[in-house]
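User: Hello, can you help with two protein structures?

Assistant: Certainly.
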Amino acid sequence: MKCKVIDSDKAKIVMSPDYNYIFSKEDGSFMRWGKTKEDNPMYGPFGPELLDISITSKCSPGTCKYCYQNAKKDGQDLSLNELGKLLRSLPPTVNQIALGGGEPTMHEDFPEVLRLIYSYGIVPNYTTNGYNLTDKIVEATAKYCGAVATSYHGDWDVTLESVNRFTEAGMDQTNIHYILSEDTIDDAMWLLKRPQNAFKNVNAVVFLLYKPQGRAPYSGILRNKEKIKTFMDNVKSCKSFKIGFDSCSVPMLYEFMQDEKDVEMLALLAEPCESSLFSYYIDVDGRAYPCSFCKGHVEPVDTKKEDFDFMRDAWYHHVTTEFRRKAMNSTYACTSCSHKKTCGKCVVYPEIIGCDHA
């Protein structure tokens, strides 16, 4: 089976008998279907749609106790030469690259990184802590990126100043990322009650479910079900700003949003974990994994080897295909749950999802 790819400045279209998508490079809207518009493919047979690349292991301040990458002030960058080689190896299905670190803006050639990715017809996006922004970085972000997010790390002045700078430069998709854990859920509920003008330039606040990786201890896993329920009630009543969740949160959303209309909306819009199905991760050393939380759990793929072929050596590597098998069957044991076909458990850390159905 082969696919046809139509790529322009405004959109990318992939067409085949069993796998199709339309991606707008202008606003990020995306639609995927299979043999019919009602059919949703289990995975991308021609390669990932999204690539997650760690371009540096440096971070400043570099002291976050929950950093899953264990980033520090000293580290290394993925060189432009290595990034270019990687970009040339990618299948044409890749439409976006999410840049991470460490702190991606600490890459010594960060504006050039954005320009280089953009030159391949791929939309770059990234998350920053907001501490290392320069006028040059903000300008390049507005010119090349589809979206940018500032992670909240305890200082709202830094977070909101970062958002305002991006917005003033012309960015429409400027979000705040907030890690939701046992330690932060109380502050998250306070956040949901803030007046609308407190986040006037924020496109959305996106909650990311805590994972015990790197420096992040298991004690931070969100376990208090009463607090989760209260938090979800506050989410539904919040009118001050838009709210989003990462794909890892989908099982938790199904578990604690029991209103029939909410569940119907989740089934239409929410997409569970895409790792190895529609997304893939490469670290700063060129080691590839099904997702960024697989480091230390599965065997990596070396993307720097001389004869590296992405489809053969990464997307259809035996580690990837085994992970993919587990991901597609992650809810197999959830016999008592009516959402098992649209939900998806974390293959690496199934204990984070706050669900009792398995």
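That covers the first. Now for the second protein you mentioned:
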Amino acid sequence: MNLDCSVRLVRYEPKYKAQWDEFVLQSKNGVFLFYRDYLEYHSDRFSDFSLLFFQEGQLVAMMPANRDDDTAVSHGGLTFGGIISGAQMTTTLMLSVFDVMLRELRMQGVTKLIYKSIPHIYHAAPAEEDLYALFLHNARLIRRDVSSTISRGRKFAYTEEREAALRQAKSHGLTVEQTSDFPQYMAIVAAGLKARYGVLPVHTAAEMELLAGRFPENIKLFAASRDGKMLSGVIVYETANVAHAQYISTTPKGRALGALDAVMDVLLNEIYCDKPYFDFGKSTAENGRSLNSGLIENKESYGARATVYDFYELNLEM
């Protein structure tokens, strides 16, 4: 590849915070997860290696990243997080950005780049120049998670079974509303994950409260209750185009009453009825190789269909 010397790379420093956040806001594919206040809430777990790219003094691209020994990841604490680009980004410019980035990573002793591409549903404008650059550099697809997404442009109906379950749920006098009681809800999430999979949630209740406090317009908890007792809920990560279900859980009693159906129906047909996409999250494990068929069929019963979240690996050893 021909190295474009007009592109200059710098490592992120706190002095760039305002410029970083403003670029995310104005970008083609940036979301609130890329703001520094989100990236840095778990800075004790990840060694930041974020990059900024300038051309003739103008910021043209950024990449949230961390470093783990000789591996750079974009970013280990995020579901996705590749190159963030602005309206001025073109395919040829992206190739120059990659050339400069890979040269610098090699000079810094990085031998492997794990690149988590940003799914198209989060794009404000087409922004897949990075996928072409990955292809030219022989990047290898190492992981593909399947998520389930409802598109308002072509919304499919609930299945008959889901309609019946919803009618039953509505007969139980459930109340669905937004709440800030993250400790109670995360206890439900933790109990459900431990019982079904023997694992704990990625986030603690304290972390969810912290993040929701920092991003109250983006991180919201909706729950179903009866007689003041929380039964089911969904934490939603809201971006301009997507309402993404980060945690979906229910108690045994909530399951018996169909409380989760009640929550989902309110989210899909009232609160987020005008959002271009509603994303239920992934139904895969083992780096995408194992599909939880029961889980994905449940999500698809609401009319959702597949969106993939891809991870690539670039070997930088000479």
